[in-house]
Design goal:
Strand content: under 5%
Structural class: mainly alpha
Number of domains: 1
Helix content: over 70%
Oligomer: single chain
Radius of gyration: 41 Å
Number of helices: 3
Length: 193
């Protein structure tokens, strides 16, 4: 068979080569598309996992803020009860010693004690407010992180798909209109093969 050339044999070989090229190009396109989808989903899933963690941290900080405020309120109520008992004891001791309790030094001592007690209650509540505010600020920051991670998931998946799509388009264009196979066919035609 060597040396014999049929009129249609050259055309058939070129067609077979052409279909082989398209089949391998389709396989490559499918591979790139699957890879792009996988990369896009991977980027999306990673960012969503970070967003879920930030949402959890936000809820945790909000709960800690509520607990800090409740603890301060309980401490303040306990302090009020303790102060009420202390004032009653002070009044009883002053009255038992025969001292006039409604005027002079005993009244001033009780007034000063009441003022200091109110200050202690205020500082206890303020401390709870400060702790609660710190946790609320942390919750706000975690909420911001969660929003950014959600946006990053969408953008990252989109960028991954677009870059893979452009690579796919370039590969398809290069394989169809240029590249090794086109150069080889042009050379073969020019030398009469």
């Amino acid at each position: 068979m060597r040396g014999h050339c049929y009129a249609g044999a050259s055309f058939v070989r070129q067609e077979a080569r052409h279909y082989g090229l398209e089949t391998s190009a389709i396989i490559a396109i499918v591979g790139v598309a699957v890879s792009a989808a996988g990369a896009g989903y991977s980027a999306y899933a990673a960012s969503e996992a970070q967003a879920s963690a930030a949402d959890y941290n936000k809820k945790l900080a909000e709960n800690q803020a509520a607990l800090a405020q409740q603890a301060a309120d309980i401490d303040a109520d306990t302090m009020k009860e303790k102060n009420r008992r202390l004032q009653a004891l002070q009044l009883t001791e002053q009255g038992g010693s025969g001292v006039e309790t409604e005027s002079g030094s005993p009244l001033l001592v009780r007034a000063d004690t009441a003022r200091q007690m109110q200050r202690d209650i205020y500082l206890t509540k303020y401390g709870g407010y400060v702790h609660s505010s710190g946790y609320l600020q942390q919750a706000g920051l975690q909420g911001l992180y969660a929003q950014n991670y959600h946006r990053g998931a969408e953008i990252g998946a989109g960028v991954s798909l677009l870059s893979s799509g452009s690579a796919l388009a370039a590969q398809n264009y290069y394989g169809r209109y240029g590249g090794y196979y086109a150069d080889r066919d042009i050379y073969a035609r020019s030398v009469g093969m």
